[in-house]
Fold this sequence. Notes:
CATH class of the largest domain: Alpha Beta
Shape: elongated
CATH topology of the largest domain: Rossmann fold
Largest sheet: 6 strands, antiparallel
Helix content: 25-40%
Distance between the termini: 37 Å
CATH architecture of the largest domain: 3-Layer(aba) Sandwich
Structural class: alpha+beta
CATH superfamily of the largest domain: Succinyl-CoA synthetase domains
Number of strands: 18
Amino acid sequence: MDLYEYEARELFKSHGIAVPDAAVVTSPREARAAAESLGGRVVVKAQVKTGGRGKAGGVKLAANPAAAQLTARQILGMDIGGHVVRRIMLAQAADIQAEFYVSYVLDRAAGVFLAIASAEGGTEIEEVAASRPEAVARIPVDPRRGVDAAKSAEIAKAAHLPPETALVLAQLWQVLVQEDAVLVEVNPLVRTVSGQILALDGKVTLDDNARFRHARWGSSDEADPGADPLEAAASAKGLNYVRLDGEVGVIGNGAGLVMSTLDVVAGCGARPANFLDIGGGASARVMADGLTVILSDPAVKSVLVNVFGGITSCDAVADGIVQALESVHLTKPLVVRLDGNNAARGRAILSGRDHPLVEQAATMDGAARRAAQLARQGV
């Protein structure tokens, strides 16, 4: 789960990392009042969970409260990468002497965390790495040993950062460990003209698998007026759902199979409307919840259920579909492909139900072609 910048900075602050004073507001009038309380000169920053805010005009310096009010009016309501700006953060402007980049990210393949740091902060690290790879240090961190004073000094030295940033590197590691994060990033970490080290921006991604240890997680998302309503509804039902921009709804069991199904649908000249992985549990409740969410998308013209029976047999999936049809008003054609464990029995169960909007296909390609055809017909 990604955090908003203002949430990330609060985590940093709680772990001793210095951040500028700031306030989060939702209206231009509130922005003016906040700027007055922060001393007048502020940076106005859109609060959205996506990158490229600066390039999109979502980060601007305001010289005084009146300018802050005007800037807030310009930024609120902006669409930045498909995210509508509903909140802005005003932070005290800093007199910057130098900018740096520091982060820790989980390297799943190597089974370690990776410290990435550079003395060239303030720009996207990908651009620096592409143009001047020698300017970006990548230091593996053994999660069993962590980042102590010696390790943080090693990272700072490798990245040509001033020695005083070593303390922040150690503190940032504590954010990662104690908050169950898989990514923590500060860009830029700055040294002011007075010599203070400040985190001017922050990005944190929390490990969803640790949600049970953090009761407060999700509180901001649940109240986020900018969140996609279908994704929010699916999340509340415990579904692994991502909304896309197509017309063929997709349900499958297993992320790999669902991704393959999306590709096959696209290859048939249609666009997938979503990613929905029901995993190993194709119960009636799961199928009903999945169908309800997908059919709530007005762009969906047909639905494709693609299941390969393994631990969960195809007859159990078919039973789930049939029972779900008792509680879900099916308004769009549903194409079902069952293969694997007990596939013949599952197909027989669906045939016995004989729903007028439910069709079966023997292969994934055939099912995708039929779903794409039905979507184009707009049945």
